[in-house]
């Protein structure tokens, strides 16, 4: 599984990403969106990270989600973290 798919899956399970038609349209057209649109709190951010870690079999800092403002920034931060392990 690639990083993008793992993040989408984790955000969907935690925040119902795929139930938000406006965000699904952005994903399908490779547009970015602000993570604030998902109403992530610290607990759901931690759940997202745990699901990504399980899907990709990596260790990530929970702060990656909280420090990322957009979907593309989150992908970039996760990919960078994986490269530096």
Offer a few descriptive terms.
85 residues, mainly alpha, Non-ribosomal Peptide Synthetase Peptidyl Carrier Protein, Chain A, 0% strand
Describe the model.
- The protein is mainly α.
- It has one domain (about 5-85): Non-ribosomal Peptide Synthetase Peptidyl Carrier Protein, Chain A (Orthogonal Bundle), CATH 1.10.1200.
- It is built from five helices and no strands.
- It has helices spanning about 5-15, 20-30, 40-55, 65, 70-85.
- The longest helix has 15 residues, at about 40-55.
- The protein starts with a helix and ends with a helix.
Write the layout of secondary structure elements.
Layout: H1 3-15, H2 21-28, H3 42-56, H4 63-67, H5 71-83
Helix pairs in contact: 1-3
Structural class: mainly alpha
Radius of gyration: 12 Å
- Which CATH class? Mainly Alpha
Domains (count): 1
Question: What would you say about this model in short?
Answer:
Helix content is 64%, strand content 0%. The chain is an all-alpha fold.
């Amino acid at each position: 599984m690639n990083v993008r798919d793992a993040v989408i899956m984790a955000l969907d399970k935690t925040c119902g990403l795929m139930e938000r038609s406006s965000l699904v349209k952005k994903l399908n057209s490779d547009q970015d969106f602000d993570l604030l649109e998902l109403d992530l709190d610290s607990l759901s951010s931690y759940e997202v990270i745990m699901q990504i870690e399980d899907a990709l079999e990596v260790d990530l800092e929970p702060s990656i989600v909280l420090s990322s403002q957009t979907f593309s920034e989150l992908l970039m931060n996760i990919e960078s973290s994986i490269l530096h392990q």
